[in-house]
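note to self: dont lose this again. the chain is below, predicted strucutre after it. 421 aa total, dont forget to put it in the shared folder this time
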Amino acid sequence: MGYSELIKSLDTIRGYVRSFYVYGFRGRGDFSGRSGRTYDDERRRLENYLSGFMSFRSDEGGKVSFVSIDSRRTSRNPLYKIFKAKSFTAMDISLHFMLMDILRNLGEEKPLSRILDEISSVYLDGFSASLMPEESTLRKKLGEYCALGLVRARKEGKAMLYSRTPSPDLTGMEDLLSFFSEAAPCGVVGSFLLDKLAKDRQDASDVFEFKHHYITASIESDIMCTVFGAIREKRSLVLLQKKSGRGHSFSDEIVPLVVYQSAQGGRLYVMAYKQRGKRFMPIRADYILSAEMGEPYGDWDQRRAEFEEIRMHIWGVAIRPRAGKGGRRTAHVSFTVRFDDGEEFIYERLLREKRCGEVTRLDRNTARFDADIYDAQEIFPWARTFICRITDFSSSDESVTKRFYDDIRLMDAMYRKGEAG
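---
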């Protein structure tokens, strides 16, 4: 069979996007268990979808591919294209246009038998009888369109009547959709709606620029849609996940409670409760291969209330398990920041970014940050951004304090060595 640009499996192309963009710099030999032809076909698909963003380089291991996207200069997320190129059969596309035309008059309802008659007498008249779709095929297709909201079904007696649903009026929503499509975890929905607008209206809504434009998580939009659905309906989720290393996958059932997004890189995490083990845990969205709705979970409100209590001690996503009868252990972290006159923005930044911590103004030029968190190691990347202004740093976890000052000594030694050279 010849190479096709259309996608048959979203999971497959999603894996390649992660390999070339999220994880980066993968070559042909890094994809074990897949033939060279499969690799070449998927790589060519990505080259077509992400034209202008795909790059290559050669190293000792051979030619490696990667996706490079400057999100500061890209107003529209190019990764949404992988959701818009699904493969279909000739009958799929033909049947779509037949049904949309047959049900074109809004409010007019038609039974399945009449729709079949119109396909036969109007659209396939003179064609081979083998092209005529079976009743079960048509019923299934209409059921899919009902689930998508394109068609409405109403039962009258024993017959099911079908009609078109009106297209939403998007007038005045251009800017809203433009922002939503680039900022929301399920922004692909906004991207599809933007596609319904005329080109000039789309261009007119291209008004946003992002200092931090997180587009990586967009390839999990369909999975996150299922996650949000489970949260809304207070259900469990059956996940197929991959391990942090390459290779194996495993199935697990969890109860999703809330979704976190990294302020540093935009990565999504599902904060969940695991019934087996009775513990709260974070799950990286890019480790989820598939998600299916489970059964309603009767204790969802109670688990969410419990999570709201412990989230006051979560800096990033780490949640340490219970430590005996004393409950979860937290570590106290404290550091003092000094700033000069005219640098009030430093104090304002502390207030804005303190998360679950507290900021105390000690005097005109000094403020102290305090927090009790489960994993004090998570605070390092943020604390280091104040490194030249911190006058003291301490933690009830001695290993955290030691690591902070050891890092400073190592950095000092590195710079001194560079100056001596």
